[in-house]
Amino acid sequence: MARFAFKAPSRPFRIGREGLLLAALVVLCTIFASQSEFFLSERNLTTILRNSVDLAVVCAGMTIVIILGGIDVSVGGIVAVSAVLIGRAYQYGMPDWVVIPVGLAAGALLGALNGAIISKTRVPPIVATLGTMYIYIAVLFLVIGGVWISGLPNTLSFLVLGDFMGLPAGVFVIGFIYVFSWLLLRRTPWGQRVVAIGCDEVAARLVGIRVDRTKIQAYALLGLFAGIAAILYVARLRNVEVNIGTNIALEAIAATILGGANIRGGIGSLIGTLMGVLFIKITQNGLVLIGVSSLWETVVIGGLLIVVLILDALETRRVS
Amino acid sequence: MAETLKLSMKGIVKRFGGVVALDSVDFELRRGEVMALVGDNGAGKSTLIKTLAGAHMPDEGVMELDGDAVRFTSPQDAWRRGVATIFQELALAGKMTIADNIFLGREITRTVAGIPFLDRRAMHKRSRELLEELDVVVPDIHTWVEYLSGGQRQGVAIARALNIDADVIVMDEPTAALAVAEVRKVLEFIKTLRRQGKSVVLISHNVQDVFEVSDRITVLRRGRRIGLLETEKTTPEEVVGYITGAAETKRRPEAAH
């Protein structure tokens, strides 16, 4: 029988997004270090890391949801509701072993609610979660009543502020969440379902994947991570502000897209996302240190985001 | 009947509102046979295939698989019974590897600490075997399906059907959007399947392809089966005559049995 040799590139041609980001991070750090001698100090680097922990945790979940072909702009609201419930629980004198499950359960439930609305009503995720964001923020205000919750116990502060084996504890929190997420996404059948749905939902249904269930699970996982972020937030600051979670959704989406996730689904990188988080947090920190208005921070991140999206669009056009 | 029937459909009726898409259609498939299903647009080919695939429930009629009455409630249900339909869209995930696609929805796992982890090594090994059997040449099992040619994708879709031990493989216009060399390859796939004793239903517009690989030809016209022909005993002209209706006036379909 004649053999036909088909020609096709064996691997998608990409100048590794992670490599590009790493280069950008090095350039960024070099600039900041040359302008401020404090930038590379151990204390400042630890501060950057501590400020990154809650965003990084949320971003692991956001990466999975974006790979699924979804998006969740309500994560800030989920963090807020979880945090305010945690704060109230502490105020009622509840111990950590009650408070932690309350925060996690609240997050997972609100996330599952997002997933259920999206999969059962077929409302586009961005619109559905915009709606729930308003509701979650309203819940926050109803519970918090416009007054900060402050003076919360410091029993969990070691998770963010402590040191472990000579490294900030946050490194281990981030490490645990990312290894867990990576295993789930790349080494289990559940992760295969997520990627397949992100590639082609109709195809996923045809091969018998329970699309709705997988979606609800993915959004619930993101909610759970938002609950963890709320616990870390409370542990770090020991208060709950009225404007908690305001920026986290946009930062999380920006970090995930910067990290190589495709907003159309199917593609994403947890390592890239983590670098995206560092990029955002280092930019915020460095610009303050060198005395540039923090307004420029959003310009830098926004500009880079647009560049990345244009590159993605060009890539897509080239392939098709 | 001399040959054993793998599958038979009798008196299948499917209506959509007032439109009768299938008007008491009979269809049969022998073991190890390639049955072509031809007809003009709107003749009822895809409705018949969707009924066979479990995507439509017929309003009337019976279906038998290996002599047992069956009723497929969904495409997954049909797959489980060994009837795999490869639709034109192929149901492949572009940004996943060949092996991951072949095992999509039915991965091999190895349980570590209670968690089912993918056994990629086993999946790759089996994928290579399946592609080898079909003589599908791919650069690398780790290639994203998106980067494969149309013929290669057909090969992956067929390999997936073989992986679940499907013995009836229904292919909906598999050569429609392919270059000439690729068409040849897909026709080779079909011959390979027949050699392995699989039954194949080939839906095609291309009479030339049909004559190259099929054993028998079912012709649908306006929701009815108007011809069941032995490929060796007919001619492309006659088949086209049936498709367009020109043959209807000359002789009745019974003559073809």
Automatic annotation (TrEMBL), chain A:
It is found in: Cell membrane. Keywords: Cell membrane, Membrane, Transmembrane, Transmembrane helix. The chain crosses the membrane at residues 60-86, 98-118, 133-152, 164-185, 216-235, 247-280, 286-311. It is a multi-pass membrane protein. GO terms for cellular component: plasma membrane. It comes from the Bacteria. Pfam families: BPD_transp_2 (PF02653). InterPro entries: ABC_transp_permease (IPR001851). GO terms for molecular function: transmembrane transporter activity. Its main location: membrane. This is Monosaccharide ABC transporter membrane protein, CUT2 family.
UniProtKB/TrEMBL annotation, chain B:
Residues 7-247 form the ABC transporter domain. It is found in: Cell membrane. Pfam families: ABC_tran. CDD domains: ABC_Carb_Monos_I (cd03216). It is a peripheral membrane protein. InterPro entries: AAA+_ATPase, ABC_carbohydrate_import_ATPase, ABC_transporter-like_ATP-bd, P-loop_NTPase. Keywords: ATP-binding, Cell membrane, Membrane, Nucleotide-binding, Repeat, Sugar transport, Translocase, Transport. GO terms for cellular component: plasma membrane. GO terms for molecular function: ATP binding; ATP hydrolysis activity. This is Monosaccharide ABC transporter ATP-binding protein, CUT2 family. It comes from Tranquillimonas alkanivorans.
